[in-house]
Amino acid sequence: MSGVEAAKRLAARTAVDAFVKNGFKLGIGSGSTVVYAVERIAERARAENLQLTCVPSSFQARQLIIEHGLLLSDLERTPELDLAIDGADEVDEKLTLIKGGGGCLLQEKIVVNAAKEFVVVADYRKNSGALGQQWKKGVPIEVLPLAYRPVQKEIETRFGGTAKLRMAKAKAGPLVTDNGMFIIDWEFEESPTDGWTKIGMELNNIPGVVEHGLFIGCAKKAYFGNEDGTVSER
Ligand SMILES: O=C(CO)[C@H](O)[C@H](O)COP(=O)(O)O
């Protein structure tokens, strides 16, 4: 296992061991670090006979829950969650996150919002002083396909930087999310000195924007796996 993969695994296992309790209703995030969290949740559920209910935040998360034999639910049957566990693309010193590198930010934000607590699991590359220092691909913004051009133009005019339509990797044309939307990656010029709240609210007010990947004031704790086998907590 590479250094980065070992770091992801360590962070995920540490978070699951610290936070997951019997009877919990869990929100399961998306991405490659969450795979290790689900692995550990399933291991503990078997070993300790934990009764857990899992609500996915993406198609990938749903598959992970099923593959690991965990109890699958949804927000209709389980609208209140005890804990959400998810990865992040970047975490700043105030626990403001960029999420959506894997294109799942909308359902992730809904699941996080339904949870009493939200814990982030990540490797050392995501540990940042200010957003944009580590993650260079911008803030992912999920948009209604018919609105992507005016949204791109409005973002660039209002906030500067470059708003790029994310293209699919193994399909011609744009990436289409689990919700049938497009993603615009907004490469901003610099982190605002007064925080991201105002920009987050303004992004949500642009007609055609479904949700953005700035997660502000919702994470309780972040675990970062380090290259030397230690875990940093914030
Ligand atoms: O927000 C996400 C997906 O939309 C992921 O949590 C984020 O991209 C981190 O992924 P990984 O654990 O693979 O680094």
TrEMBL record:
A single GO molecular function term of this UniProt record: ribose-5-phosphate isomerase activity
CDD domains found in the cross-reference section: RPI_A
Pathway participation: Carbohydrate degradation; pentose phosphate pathway; D-ribose 5-phosphate from D-ribulose 5-phosphate (non-oxidative stage): step 1/1
Keyword Secreted: no
Stored InterPro entries: NagB/RpiA_transferase-like, Ribose5P_isomerase_typA_subgr, Ribose5P_isomerase_type_A
Enzyme Commission code: 5.3.1.6
Key words, A-Z: Isomerase
Highest taxon, organism lineage: Eukaryota
Reactions performed catalytically: aldehydo-D-ribose 5-phosphate = D-ribulose 5-phosphate
GO BP: any one term: D-ribose metabolic process
GO cellular component, one term: cytoplasm
Family recorded in the similarity comment: Belongs to the ribose 5-phosphate isomerase family.
Name recorded for this polypeptide: Ribose-5-phosphate isomerase
